[in-house]
Amino acid sequence: RNPRRPADASTPAQSVGTLAHELLLEGTQKKMHVIDPNDYPTKSSGNIPDGWTNKEIRAARDQALAAGAIPVFPKVAEDVEAMVAAAREYLASLSSSEPAVHDLFAPGGGKSEVTIVWEEDGCLFRIRPDRLSDAICGDVKTTAATAEPGRWGRLQLFGMGYYVAAAFYRRGILAATGKRVDSVYLVQEQS
Questions:
Q1: Quick check: helix, strand or coil at residue 38?
Q2: What are the C-alpha distances in Å from 153 to residues 24, 33, 62, 101, 144?
Q3: pLDDT tens digit at each of 191 positions of the chain
Q4: How far is CA 177 from the centre of its chain?
Q5: What contacts 24+ positions apart, CB below 8 Å, involve 18-24?
Q6: pTM
């Protein structure tokens, strides 16, 4: 299969990342709407659809989208849950080697999705760190490519300008709180 796509090629990689992000950081699956193809057999033949291939399952998908949810098949929901379980296992392993990072992502160790607004020279700025403690700003990234540090660093951290975002977040946190924080990325492959 194409390594840039999740197991279910009908679900965009960005959506898988959004769902994993929500479950890991907020402990909820509010956006996830699981649609089981077995519930939408083709009326004429009774065949189970393979993807969004009949009118009924497309209508269920469209209804979920209209409600602001992300429609996924059961396999994608399982994959997201497995990703989050693996991330939590990894974070737990950091308790002695990287206690500050472990604590950042532990319950009560930081706050998720904090909105920070500040003004500089008459301009308003806004940031929303994924996870924030008094010492660290954590950003969670999922990738359909590779999380190998050297390649991810070249392709994403520098290639996508994430290092600029990290500096901007640090600047905003300092302006709003007076605290200098370190930045850390938790990067995870989707497959």
A1: helix
A2: 22, 33, 37, 19, 15
A3: 333 333 455 677 788 999 999 999 998 899 999 999 999 998 888 889 888 988 999 999 999 999 999 999 999 999 999 999 999 999 999 999 999 999 999 988 999 999 999 999 999 999 999 999 999 999 999 888 888 998 988 888 888 889 999 999 999 999 999 999 999 999 999 88
A4: 26
A5: 18/70, 19/70, 19/72, 19/76, 19/80, 20/80, 20/83, 20/84, 20/87, 20/142, 20/188, 20/190, 21/130, 21/140, 21/142, 23/80, 23/81, 23/84, 24/84, 24/87, 24/88, 24/105, 24/140
A6: 0.84
Distances (CA, A) of 52 to 16, 37, 55: 17, 8, 8
Please state, in angstroms and rounded to a whole number, the distance separating the CA atoms of residues 59 and 112: 34
Angle at 112 between CA 81 and CA 182, to 5 degrees: 110
